[in-house]
Specification:
The chain is α+β, with helices and mostly antiparallel strands and 216 residues long. It is built from 6 helices and 10 strands; from the N terminus they run H-H-E-H-E-E-E-E-E-E-E-H-E-E-H-H. Strands 1-2-3-4-5-6-7-8 form an 8-stranded antiparallel β-barrel. Strand 7 and strand 8 form a beta hairpin. Helix 3 (53-59) packs across helix 6.
Amino acid sequence: MRRVAFLLLTLVPLVTSAAPDGCEHQLTPITISDEDMLGKWLYIGGSSDIPGSRSLAYLMSSVWLNITATSQSNVLRILQTQRISGKCSSLIYDVKFENSSMLIEEPFYLKEVYLPTDCSDCLLVSEDVASGGDTFSSLLLFSRRRNVSDAAMDDLKGKAECLGMPSPIMVDAKSDLCPEDVPPSEGLSALNSIFEAKMGHHVARLLDALFDALVN
């Protein structure tokens, strides 16, 4: 279950159908460099249609990323650490970064772009994931600090609405972060089996609906 946390960190696809009035500018990706990506990012909240992602979001109290450069100019390394149901776990994986986009091609396809935000120390992420004929989307907000303004959170909710996505789930800014010395486990190969577990998708969606009903 803890490995599924990475699935939350996938983005929203570029919209191919007509967006509601006033949304076009909000959904136009921005230009960002690899240097802008480097460093520690704290997960604030987001929305995703990956089966099980909403259930997981209610159980997850914190996530942080540390993005570092590698010897390859177009490759970044991501260390991701999350606390789920009180337990910490960590993943490490490499991604390509070119033309203001993050890309994973194997063992599943993931493309990440970045959307405009007035929050100067925030990263608003939109992902498209494809695996075995299935496609999934996520919209995620990260920041250099634990707390962001109400305006930044309203912007996240507005963009989710523009994309026709469920209401974002926010993490508790007062919850404890995991330490930096959690031993990381393998990331991408383990996650691919989750995407391919089609029989489990129906159950995961039922759990998502149940969590939403209990919380709301």
